[in-house]
Amino acid sequence: MSNEINNKINEALYNFYLEADRDIINDSLKNDIKNLDEYNKKKKQIIFLAKAKAQQKHNEYLKELVNTFKEAINENIEKPVSLLKQFIQEKSSFALYRNLDRLSNEDIIEIIKDKNLVELLEQLEKNDKSN
Amino acid sequence: MSGNFFSDLSILLYKNSMNLTEAIQSVDMDEVIDRLNAYAISLLKSVGIKNFNGKEPIDFVGDVILKVMDGQRDWSKAKCSFTEFLFGCLKSEISNFFSTNKNNYSGDLPDISTREESFNVEDNRKKVSELLTQEGADDDELTVFEYWIDGIMKPAEIAKDLGIDVKEVYKISKRLERRLSRIKTQVTNII
User: Fold this and answer.
1) Pick from B122, B184, B117, B94: which is nearest to A9 by CA?
2) Residue B1 to residue A28, Cβ atoms within 8 A
3) CB of B18 within 8 Å of any CB in chain A?
4) B55: which DSSP letter?
5) Above 0.90 for ipTM, yes or no?
6) What would the pLDDT profile of B164-184 be if each residue is shown by its tens digit?
């Protein structure tokens, strides 16, 4: 098929599969998949592995972030330290922590894990650049 | 010093991991995988080969998703929805598979690169339309085909232009795809 026509058909089919409603996709799969049980088994495995990998990566990076906070505490860097103090004030179970040096890695994870750090850090980054 | 802190790699990585975790939670993975699998079947069927080194379409989908989760395919720089990003990665993954295994498939794959390109798109469009008609395509399929060749490929846009429900366009598109796959060899020979 000529490239131009072929490319247009390919692009149209890309859009079709991206947008088509669930019923159409289901019908399409029913016609094309010979062993639905096998397919569903593989699908479950993929979802399980993907979520596990996402969680694993998230935990690894969370640990990295904790180390960065630790360094900031040791070097007494103003903004990250004040950020951490702010979080501690909001967390009643850590309200008595006055000395940040005493915080363990697990404590820091506990303090920061529920925070929308991405949003906060982006805001701080912006403030940093504008100052 | 605080500037260094906030631009620290660990924070960037953390942000990326948050985005990826959020992205995977923001979609119905079961539904997305079905959609990707249907697209993989369509792409693999289009080359007219049945054996892909023992891989099933769902295996291509699994490979792509795990590469995204591993960071081998970088979602953090994408400027589209997560589903669209996965679609793009799948297209590229299957294309790479054929490039890597070119020798195994050279006898079966349509050799687009060496085929003399016809610049007369209008002429080709007419020929393909005629073949579609001979194959039993109805007016609706021919109309959607015309839209595609005119560069209007999004089902919602076609539906709006025709004043019909988008679900109708989905159904017509699916019929048209089947019809096109049946005439593929003839089209390749003629054009």
Assistant:
1) B184
2) no
3) yes
4) B
5) no
6) 999 999 999 999 999 998 888
